[in-house]
Amino acid sequence: xxxxxxxxxxxxxxxxxxxxxxxxxxxxxxxxxxxxxxxxxxxxxxxxxxxxxxxxxxxxxxxxxxxxxxxxxxxxxxxxxxxxxxxxxxxxxxxxxxxxxxxxxxxxxxxxxxxxxxxxxxxxxxxxxxxxxxxxxxxxxxxxxxxxxxxxxxxxxxxxxxxxxxxxxxxxxxxxxxxxxxxxxxxxxxxxxxxxxxxxxxxxxxxxxxxxxxxxxxxxxxxxxxxxxxxxxxxxxxxxxxxxx
Length: 245
What we know:
The chain is mainly alpha-helical. It has 12 helices and no strands. It is an enzyme of class 1 (oxidoreductase).
């Protein structure tokens, strides 16, 4: 017997429940960072690894864009590439490099991915593979972690400014911009998914996609926690904090 599809509002409720339970605002590494319990070297490791993920985001959006047949949807989605790569003004990647510059990381090393944890590479690659290979409704639904981004960004910025004197407000410009971009993008993607995921099978793909994306973000923090909070577990070739910790 075929399952009965959820109503659009019930689907949204299920998606929001996934974010409540599985988004990385609950991860111990985020909590330590928010509460001022990390050293400079640990923050540097986070920023370096997160840049590697951020650099995959426009490639992910380009992969999705290449699969979209509807011109209106393509026009809406390509704004994400502009937001990250920049156009007349610097984009998200440039603003993230301002953060890594401000922390004292070598820009060449950051862009080249030198010192990035193996698990970060695997997680980012898995995300890119997912959006290339899974049905379009799932690929777009994987972006819905943006529904929960504003709250974690607000926590992160407030905690960093309150607890880490080596971080200045201007180095956090990436997050200021995302406070407006993320809700805009999430609202659009959510409305599209609620409209397009009409069958129970399609809705299950959507729910699984958001769970997968939460797992990607959680796995990256797991790796950081294992390498830089639990001492002595930095893998060969990964960034090693110096005396600044």
